[in-house]
Amino acid sequence: MSASKPFASFFTVIDTPLFYKSIAELADALAAGTTTSVALTQAIIERTLAVEERVKAFNSYDTTDALAQAAASDARRAAGQVLSPLDGIPIGIKDVIAVTGQPLTASSKMLANFVSPYDASVTQKLKKAGAVIWGRLNLDEFAMGSSTENSAFHTTRNPYNLDCVPGGSSGGSAAALAAGEAIATLGSDTGGSIRQPAALCGVVGLKPTYGLVSRFGLIAFASSLDQIGPFTRTVEDAAILLQSIVGHDEHDSTSVKTEIPDYRAALKEKKGPWRIGIPKEYFAEGLDPEVAAAVEKAVSFYEKMGCEIKNVSLPHTEYGVGVYYIIATAECSSNLSRYDGIRYGHRSAEANDVVDLYFKSRAEGFGAEVKRRIILGTYVLSSGYYDAYYLRAQKVRTLIRQDFLNAYNEVDAIITPTAPTPAFKRGAKADPLAMYLCDVYTIGVNLAGLPGISVPCGFSSSGLPIGMQLIGQPFKEADLLAIANAYDSAHDWSRRTPKL
Questions:
Q1: Which position among 73, 108, 116, 169 bears the catalytic label?
Q2: Which residue among 116, 188, 193, 255 is the active-site one?
Q3: Active site residue 169
Q4: What is the pLDDT of residues 461-500, one digit of tens each?
Q5: pTM
Q6: Does some domain include residue 321?
Q7: Active-site residue 60, yes or no?
Q8: In this structure, is residue 418 part of a structural domain?
Q9: What values do phi and psi take at 18, rounded to 5?
Q10: pLDDT tens readout for residues 297-345
């Protein structure tokens, strides 16, 4: 796809304002003294005040606190005590990740009045890096959804077309970044909840290997699938932000001890050519022709740079959606049993006894999609069905992971579409199954515990972003980021911005 003329009415490429600059650019500007963290944070606040009423990416934010953090960063810099490339950079946080003293709602009535008493491990790491923690970003309730229409508070809108969804569940994280309301954001990914909204909003979204980033302080949806990761404007920024949040954490029993390379340095050190696999199962019926064409052009780019393109097969892909919605709902049912109206969260004022309190508190506190998944999960875990559904799904999950590992005997990474279509209109997928199929290309990565990244690779004829997904080998984020950066740094898709 060539230059921007056909899409001039959809996005702009201009002299970049502060709120649309990358982490790398801003770190250089802060170091050179051409801007300050206070000036940058004020620009983000002003941008948010200007567009948030239309985008609705945030559940809450505290401008006074953000400016105080920025002033502290400027004071450190003046004293020669810069903590990291993130020092003074405003980072938005999905409202399912704990930040001390800030609301932690999961976009649910169940936690509407809950304030976190502690920091998630990733929040602690960002604070140690000097980042400005900026706002609580909207999501599908308890991270269950693919459009952010399931939020109990409001529906976030896609900055490229306000009639369309931003994806989900981390829709607020993707939309805030695309709209210039944050320099980068954090989300969580259980079945595509970082990568799918990144694709629909035209930004970079990285889901790390399961166990690389601590889940301590993340409100659990499906504990064997959840992983925290970054939304950024460029792949280089993803490397910078990932560096600050990885590492073993004794508070998370699933956190893995592994060597942590310099991800940003690897972008320059690892030049390929690579062996890249194309799974036939991901280019079948249901894929939008414009999405297919954009991804095929990306494949051609890698081929022209000397990469070996190989066809691979992931034969158990067809079972992915079924396996995912058994395992995820089962773990959801278990994890959400703690919201009982007694210990914390919403408590019904109309209950007559303890049993009535359980029923009414949960009925009032949870939305329709959360209830649906709790019921499904409780069913597959119930006596007589555990072996038939949950245990069998876990066995097929092992086969899905093995498919990927077999493919990695032949290739270094796998390329696929991120989502089957560009962003769709709000309300267009009222049927739950149609919504579930939005994650058909992303859920396999979570089931297999692999790293995956979505990188912008074009626009539809209606001006909506298209993303491609690169899937890497376990704990080889350095290689995955290098492969993604080779494309991203040679194209300007991720540097384009919507007209708002």
A1: 169
A2: 193
A3: yes
A4: 999 999 999 999 999 999 999 999 999 999 999 999 999 8
A5: 0.95
A6: no
A7: no
A8: yes
A9: -55, -40
A10: 999 999 999 999 999 999 999 999 999 999 999 999 999 999 999 988 9
